[in-house]
Amino acid sequence: MKKVLTIAGSDCSGGAGIQADLKTFSAHGVFGMSVIVSVVAENTSRVIDIQDITPDMIKKQIDAVFEDIEVDAVKIGMLSTPACMHAVAEKLKEYHPANVVVDPVMYAKNGCPLMEPTAVDTLIKTIIPFADVLTPNIPEAEKIADMRITSVADMEAAAKKIYSMGCKAIVIKGGHASGNAIDILYDGKDFYRFETSRIATKNTHGTGCTFSSAIASQLAKGLSVKDAVEKAKDYVTKAIEHSLDIGKGNGPTHHFYELYKYGLRDE
Ligand SMILES: Nc1ncnc2c1ncn2[C@@H]1O[C@H](COP(=O)(O)OP(=O)(O)O)[C@@H](O)[C@H]1O
Ligand SMILES: Cc1ncc(COP(=O)(O)O)c(N)n1
To answer: EC (predicted)?
Structure first.
């Protein structure tokens, strides 16, 4: 069985962060592991507080996984401060794992910040160069590339700019645009476009976590970046189509719809 590690924040309400990542891994039939970088008291409506795990403990968790288990892919999510970023970067340098997917999480769906705004430079210098695939949404790509994005042409220009910061491929996600949900992939050579119609729902808590974890799962299984992104787009689209009206705000994506569809589980 392929083994995939998420290094991210914990969302106690279960829809995003580590919890969404592990659900996505299970739905892909890979063995999920988790290094918790921050504990976030959050729900579908708001972020109440964030407590970062100490850099020493972040590093020890990463050591505990890598000294024992062969890791086929790593997904990196919320890193709230430069201290967290340095701790993770130090260990990526030591273990140089294959198939690193970085989701540069900056805000929750309800607009609450999950990364210190001044940490963007550290993110660019310490984490982005380790990314085999970087998956910013439009606001995150705007911050990293330091430019406005109002069209697919802007997404492509930002992708080129961010690619030059050292990631091996970049997907800019179009969840925050209007019209069709268009994601673009740039691998330094070619652009690929993944497009679906926009699903009319407010229940999009965890879409980015789901998408990046699906890419990591498919890379672990040996797919190319292009095929992994194509399959992950299909997965996240279905997970949004079947998203759950849980909570008072943006409800979560749903990971086990296939099992329900075939009658293998009760609703
Ligand atoms: N309403 C929607 N309908 C269809 N696809 C969506 C919708 N919202 C987001 N997506 C897709 O979900 C994935 C995550 O995108 P996005 O929501 O922008 O990420 P994030 O959670 O980081 O903000 C992308 O593939 C995007 O195209
Ligand atoms: C701990 C944590 N990590 C990430 C996100 C963003 O989730 P998404 O962008 O997928 O909605 C979140 N709300 N909480």
So the answer is: 2.7.1.49, 2.7.4.7
In the numeric block, which tokens belong to residue 162?
């961010």
Structure tokens at 212: 């990046």
* 206-229 pLDDT, tens digit each: 999 999 999 999 999 999 999 999
Using a cut of 0.95, tell me whether the model's pTM lies above it.
yes
- Percent of the chain predicted with pLDDT > 70: 96
**230-246 burial, b if ≥16 CB within 10 A, otherwise e?**
bbbbebbbbbbebbbeb
- Report domain extents, the chain: 3-261
Assess whether 206 carries a catalytic annotation: yes
Ligand nearest to C-alpha 205: 2
Instruction: Compute, in angstroms, the gap from residue 264 CA to the centroid of ligand 2.
Output: 29
The CATH number that domain 3-261 falls under is 3.40.1190.20
